[in-house]
Amino acid sequence: MDLAGFDHILFVVALCALYVLRDWKKIIILVTAFTIGHSITLALATLQLLKVNSDLIEFLIPLTIVITALSNIFKPKPSTGRGIQINYFFALFFGLIHGLGFSNYLRSLLGKEASIFQPLLAFNLGLEVGQLVIVAIFMTASSILIGIAGINRKDWTLVISAIVLGMAFMMMLDAKYW
């Protein structure tokens, strides 16, 4: 829940913008798919089995958020289910990219640790819990605004996705990759 991981927060919010609180099982699967994706590349990069230009990753992370937000904005009607299904793909595949962003940070935390298994597991479990807390807060706010205040669900998704899109686009422009 560290604001240094703001890009992570934006991505999770973009993923969840399509859902309502009663979809909590789908949301947990979605967030877990994201954790699995970034855990794979985080482990590979931390073990230095995978090396990618960090400037490229700092560009690709906000790009994943932009794509997810745009998908929310231009997705077909909810009855088709396509928007929801592609979100699972985004969570897992884009999680692979996000995991690469954490590898330098985790390596600095590990120092000269002999084994990375336990710290890697603890790091990923902490991320999962943090993401679930953020999702719980976001979904509670969504439920209040949609269910109690009467805001249209589609409008809510569009507004949240547009805000996330704008923020991620600015992060993408600020990336050193250009």
Automatic annotation (TrEMBL):
Record has Signal as a keyword: no
Membrane-crossing segments per the record: 6-21, 28-50, 56-74, 86-106, 129-149, 156-173
Keyword vocabulary terms for this entry: Membrane, Transmembrane, Transmembrane helix
Record InterPro entries: Put_HupE_UreJ (IPR032809)
Protein name: HupE / UreJ protein
